[in-house]
Each structure stands twice: as structure tokens, then as C-alpha cells.
Design a protein that fits this description.
alpha/beta
Length: 335
């Protein structure tokens, strides 16, 4: 059985109140007594209850993290970086995967609030973003990660999705492509990446075609389906920008199934620069997000807000970077 605070007090020959003061680093306890109690706690492998601390209104040293889908390599890598940064600051992360379902997300938010986590990181999508308002109205620090929702007064840490979309299409145009399709994840990030790509086409005098732009869910299967719809048309694009790496892998599968060689028959560019982009063949050209830097800034924001509850909301927009792989190549421009 797990040791209790009563076991520690008995073995150390002190009161329960003394053990509690040692655990919570409060009260006037001599260094000798503190060290003795800590040694007994270590000997008995006693772990203070986080829930008990929450019930007394004390800091729990935990942050809640709502993810869209832990199976998405971007969110898996983001979760790992956030966990590393939190651990370095003496905190733990409680992760919840929402599948972008509003009801599920709200249930998790309520659960984390009841457990009195010291802050929350929102890295999932809401159909109705106003559902976040009750949680933003509390003193609990909240950071929106990899999402930018201007209607919300909330700390935000994200990448410049518009610029990333612009860079992706600009790269294809510089390689001679004029017939360009886009497969995007439905939601704010996907919309901003499409808009950036459309601006690059506009500046190059290329008219984008609505039948070559599709919004789907974020999965390899959806990337495959979206690409098939374009590639089976009588006139197909010579290049496709997939707005995340999972979608790009789906596009790659569709091309290979249709007998198209990548990049000679079809150039493909992704977004995120996850491990997935590095292990597929050919290695994906993609737009990189500085996940580690974003995670560090997110945890620091939570810590600063905890120390200064009335601080103004901050927005940090990190810069994307083109990573050239072997899934794109130059072609001779055609009319």
C-alpha cells in the first residue's frame, strides 16, 4: 500500500502538521527537522497528493494541455516540447486529446479546472470559440498554442501561417509551377495558409482555381481523398501544397497510386517539418515551425501570468522557414 502522511509522521516522530509544513514549504521548521522528515518521505516513497493540494487551494504544479489529436506528429512533437519545458520549470503536464470536438473539449476544460491546474494550453480547434470565454474570465492563465483567434482576449503563441502559406506557393512558382492545388485542414490555420498562398499566386499573375482548393479533416486519409479529387480531373495541377505534413503524405500516396512520379510528375510541399516529413520517400519539402521555441515561450507566458495575474494579453508570432526536400523540383513553365 502507498505510504500516507500519517505513516511519515509516525516514522519521523513528528506531528502531521509538521510533515504538512515540510511538504508545502511553509511554517517555521528547523533545517534539521526538515531534512529528517524529507529522508523519511524518501525512505517510505511518500508522494504528496496533488488533488489534496488542490482542495486546499495550493499550487498543484501542473498545466493542462488540450490537443487536437496526439496521433498528429505536429501535436505529438509539440506536446513533448511543452512537457520538457514544463518539467524544467518544476511542472507536470496533463494531456487531453479532443479530436476537435467541442463537447469533449469543454468536458476536459471543466475537469482540468476542477483539478485546479495552474494554467491551461489550448492546442485544439473549437467550432464555437465562445465556449472558451468562461475559462478566460477566471484568474487561471490560458495560452492559445498554434492558433490565432483575434476575437479572443487570450495569450497566443503561433507561427505566421499566412507567411508560411505564401512561402510554400512562392517556392512552387519559383520552380515554374502555374497549375497549383491546395489541400488544407479546415480551421483558422488552414484558412490563413490558403490566403497566404493565394496572395503569392496573385502577385505572380496566376489565377487560382476553386476546384483545386479543398478543405478536409487533418489525416493522411483526408489528404489522399482531397488529392484524388484533383488528380482525377481532366486537367490536373502540376504541384500541390498540403497545409500540414499528414495531408502531404496522403497526397503522396494518391500520386503513387495513380502512377505519378514525385516530383517529376507532381511536386508536393507540406507544412510543419515533423518527423513524418523526414521519413517518407521522397523526403518532403515543407514549411518548418519552430516548435521548441514556441513551447518555451508558452510555458514562460504561463509562469509570468501566474506571477502577474493582471498582465496584458501577449501575442507571439514565430516565423516559418522553408525546408527543401526532394518532393519538389523545377519545371518548364507552361501556359
Amino acid at each position: 500500500m502507498k505510504s500516507t502522511i500519517y505513516d511519515v509522521a509516525k516514522a519521523a516522530g513528528v506531528s502531521i502538521a509538521t510533515v504538512s509544513k515540510v511538504v508545502n514549504k511553509t511554517g517555521n521548521i528547523s533545517q534539521k527537522t526538515r531534512e529528517h522528515v524529507l529522508s523519511i518521505m524518501d525512505e517510505l516513497q511518500y508522494q504528496p497528493s496533488v488533488v489534496a493540494s488542490a482542495l486546499t487551494g495550493k499550487k498543484t504544479s501542473t498545466f493542462g494541455l488540450l490537443l487536437s489529436n496526439i496521433a498528429n506528429p505536429f501535436f505529438a512533437e509539440a506536446a513533448r516540447s511543452l512537457e520538457d519545458e514544463a518539467r524544467a520549470a518544476g511542472y507536470s503536464i496533463v494531456m487531453c486529446s479532443t479530436d476537435n470536438e467541442d463537447e469533449r473539449s469543454v468536458n476536459y476544460l471543466s475537469l482540468l479546472q476542477r483539478k485546479q491546474v495552474d494554467g491551461m494550453i489550448i492546442a485544439c480547434h473549437f467550432t464555437d470559440w465562445s465556449l472558451l470565454q468562461p475559462y478566460l474570465a477566471t484568474d487561471m492563465p490560458v495560452v492559445l498554442f498554434s492558433k490565432d483567434i483575434p476575437s479572443l482576449d487570450v495569450h497566443t503563441v503561433t507561427v505566421d501561417d499566412y507567411k508560411g502559406g505564401y512561402q510554400a506557393i512562392e517556392h512552387l512558382i519559383h520552380n515554374g509551377h502555374q497549375h497549383i492545388g491546395i489541400v488544407a485542414e479546415a480551421g483558422p490555420s488552414g484558412d490563413h495558409r490558403i490566403q497566404g498562398g493565394q496572395q503569392a499566386m496573385k502577385e505572380a499573375g496566376i489565377t487560382y482555381r476553386s476546384e483545386w482548393i479543398t478543405n478536409v479533416h487533418s489525416s493522411i486519409r483526408d489528404g489522399y481523398t482531397g488529392a484524388r479529387q484533383m488528380l482525377e480531373q481532366s486537367e490536373r495541377p502540376s504541384a500541390i501544397f498540403a497545409c500540414n505534413d499528414m495531408l502531404a503524405v496522403g497526397v503522396l500516396q494518391a500520386a503513387q497510386e495513380l502512377g505519378l512520379q514525385v516530383p517529376s510528375d507532381l511536386s508536393i510541399i507540406g507544412f510543419d517539418d515533423t518527423l513524418l516529413s523526414q521519413i517518407v520517400q521522397p523526403r518532403l519539402t515543407t514549411i518548418s515551425q519552430p516548435i521548441t521555441d514556441m513551447a518555451h515561450h508558452t510555458i514562460q507566458l504561463l509562469l509570468r501570468h501566474a506571477g502577474t495575474p493582471d498582465m496584458s494579453k501577449q501575442k507571439a508570432i514565430f516565423q516559418p522557414k522553408l525546408i527543401e526536400g526532394r518532393s519538389t523540383q523545377a519545371i518548364t513553365p507552361t501556359s
